[in-house]
Amino acid sequence: MRALGLALLLAGLAATPALTQPVCGATPVMDGLQAQLERPRGDLLIAAHRAGHLNAPENALAAIEEAVVEGADLIEIDIKVSADGVPYLMHDQTVTRTTGGKGDAERLTYAQVRALTLKGGTEPPPTLLEALRRSCGRVLVDLDLKTERVAPIVAVVEGLGMLDQVIFFDGDSNVLRQVRKLAPTARVMPRVAERDALRDKAADLAPVAIIHGDPDSLVPALQAGIRALPARTWINALGEVDEAIEADAPDVCARLGALVDLDANVIQTDQPRRLRKALVACGLKAAP
User: Fold this and answer.
1) Residue 172's closest CA among 195, 146, 196?
2) Architecture (CATH level 2) of domain 2-19+29-282
3) Computed from CA positions of residues 203, 259, 73, 131, in that sequence, does the dihedral angle turn out positive or negative?
């Protein structure tokens, strides 16, 4: 069944006139974002968590629009693959929280997924194809792989000509190695949660676009190792830092300064516009 779903997906790409050639070409916005991404010590980039979802359902097409309007440089979206091989946006193991439906997200067929409605919206969870067509040329995309079935995902990205606009992220570097076997030029982002795990996490993945770290792992030795790769450093402002930004708390500059001091030059947030404004107000920039 999975093979059939992938075959149908690829056939659909080939049969649609707009998709017989890569449909996502260069734009001035994307040229600038790609130039920044290729500079490991470039300007600080802001990533919108689960796309923008302050006023839209998470991982929805409306959330992508919100993130663009809010000025995000990247959107982070979560990818599952249906039982019959269609990649779509979903964070959780089940569809209950975000749709009110029932079932394991990867045991539902594409038809069953399309019968769902995202809470707070009027549409089903979007396919990866729909999400990438909405984002192409406008914002970089971080694909948080919530699956080990990466072949259908790579097929969609390549079919749209968006391999250079997408970053593949997974905490398991073996999943990223599978991506690289299918697409040798794919940009990848391993997660390094242990301070001494960089060598194992990055092995056989060079070049690495970004390393996802956190306050516990990003000790000076790891920071130096990431610079030596060279790669960017991703860190989250989710939770307490975002809450401080939203509340305009008196310690916002101190909290953001602590992230920048960890050598971060990609920050993921639920508050992209407010984060950018706060960074400017605090006079904070990524370290050169």
Assistant:
1) 146
2) Alpha-Beta Barrel (3.20)
3) positive
